[in-house]
What does this fold into?
Amino acid sequence: MSTRINERGVEETYFEGQHLSLSDLKEEEIYHAYLFKNNIPAYPESVEFDVEKVSHVTGRRGLEGIFEDSGFKASDTSYFLWWNLSVTADDIDSAEERFLNSLFPHTRIRNQIPFLEQFTTSKAFQKESPYGNFRFTFSIRELLYHYGDQFCPGHSPVLRVFETVLYKQEILYRIIVHPRSITLYNNYPRLPNDDDGVCGYANGSIWWRCQAPSETYMNRFKVNWRRGSVHVSPRNEHYYVWDQVCVAFHMEPGWVLHVNRDKLIKRVNVCEVSGPCLLRPPETPLSLHRAENILSNF
It folds into this structure.
């Protein structure tokens, strides 16, 4: 365990080469106001999501730079190109079905009212983003193909467990992708392709066992074992940690992950900026109407 100040001036507690579950983190000797709260209403724990798509969100300057460069590159102060999981409504439905089947493996479940959408309310599941108004969305398989084709001649990219980062209310699981020729990360474990751990990659999807799906808990989850069903009841508002997964592609200075213009246009849409806004000055959030007008000019 170590601490550092990131490039946005925010303190991070991080664990290199590990993806620590919520219970693992609670065994660490750290002070954290939210992590150790014990009055959180019951919620669906360790729900597994299989996510095929990732997204990169940016502001107007980033959008212009991506089209000028015909692709993506790291910032001037970083070796990483960051992508977040893009969890769809279908991903949530599939995760709910798997979760119910794991609870009641020998029961045919009928007429169950959907429940998971009432808990998947953290920033990991929101359509808005604090990073800007323009979201590029690709399948992780497609990105790995482009990255491998351009930077990993003769080999596939390597995916590894990078780190767990703990913020005031967020647990961030980072995955690193790099060429075999870059040996900087050889001491980090390979990302699992089976069901061992918090997250991994298999068959074109990143699977993720979500540890805490909400920032604010306003519902209580209860299992009726006799009837083979679950239900949700309202509770008072409680704040807790939430978690998400991001993928960092290692980028050397001057590298651009090239994508042709037509594909860039097909893969980008606009979104609202959520708070707290993390756009770098002088950029400011745009209205959806303004963002759509800007995008229509590309």
